[in-house]
Amino acid sequence: MKILGIGNAIVDVICKVNDNFIEQNNLTKSTMKLFFDENEFKSLFSSLKIEKTVSGGSVANSIVGLSQLGSKVGFIGKVSDDEFGKRYEEGLIKEKVEYFYSKKKENLPTGICLILVTPDSERTMCTFLGIAGKINEKDVSTDAIKKSEIVFLEGYLWDEGEPKKAFDKAINNANIAAMSLSDLFCVDRHKPDFLNLVKNKLDIIFANEQEISSLIETKNFNEVINFSKKLNKFLVITRGKKGSIAINGDQVIENDIQKNLKIVDLTGAGDLFAAGFLHGYINKLSTKECLVKGTEMASRVIQQIGARLKI
Fold it and tell me: Residue range 94-116: average pLDDT?
């Protein structure tokens, strides 16, 4: 297998609502709210009509993108043996992703991200992580890791206790360990641990400019470049309108964004960029060509709704 993803297994549940629904439930349009109370979350969407479900999560989106590019890929993510757990597994299998997790009845349900689409096409997200964030080392197959050229992890999954043990097991057994820093909130919450991972354990790191700048506590991008050069490993940084840059030792390669795009939804841009770059990497393309492939995938996904490319 080429690439094995390990991440939060979250079912994206897409529902159409009116603006009144957003106001009545004290939600802020176009933001993401994390729910910790299962009953509160259930009551929110008990009255809604489900338009469609997608097997989501950041690394899962990348892995599906790689599958669509023709790569042989797999995924490990924790679900419960419930209706949405079944939907999650079926959704990945449909996308030709091998699913290395045997679901069972858990004390928490499968993780759900409720995506509420209002008439103005804005998306308001409500997430209940459920069992997804409770991954442990027993859930991670050493055999699947060792048979993969690259293991790709997400910062969203990293947490003290059991998830950290699962992470360590994956990295220690990986041929090549890659990770996305995922989110500024994740970086700020786990800064010393992420810095240790970046400096000492990972081979390929994906980040946006804000995440990597926060990690090393600088506002000067030249300091980011100097820090990256000393690592002697791949650091791949997306910079919004400034394009992207890949640094590996003294090799610093930049790539521009694609122009004149009709941007409708930025969901999944980073996930699909990583998919394109990793596809280039495993097919031994040049670093520049990897950046171009990443940019191409991100450019396609932001011109449609959702984090899945419509092939």
Answer: 93
